[in-house]
């Protein structure tokens, strides 16, 4: 649950932002090939319900993971 929450939080952050480094790299590469200089956009992060729910899921998973490691919750088996 912890690792799944971390993956979904990372993916939702990536897809809800304005691109960042990858967008800058592709713009630079296109400028180098064509000779046209493109206007760069500032990094914008749009926090929505998907990102918020994945952070909550990540937090609950982290709490349960810590409780499992500290042996408060017994391992299944």
Shape: elongated
User: What share of the residues does DSSP label as strand, in percent?
Assistant: under 5%
Largest sheet: none
Backbone structural class: mainly alpha
Order of helices and strands: HHH
- Ends apart, CA distance between termini: 18 Å
Number of strands: 0
Report low-confidence residues grouped into runs of 5 or more.
none
Individual helix count = 3
Helix content: 55-70%
Radius of gyration: 19 Å
Oligomer: single chain
On the 0-100 scale, what is the average pLDDT? 80
What can you see in these coordinates?
The protein has 77 residues and is mainly alpha-helical. Helix content is 65%, strand content 0%. It has 3 helices and no strands. The protein has helices at 2-16, 21-34, 49-69. Helix 1 runs antiparallel to helix 3 (49-69). The chain is elongated. The model has no long low-confidence stretch (mean pLDDT 80).
How is the topology of this model organized?
Layout: H1 2-16, H2 21-34, H3 49-69
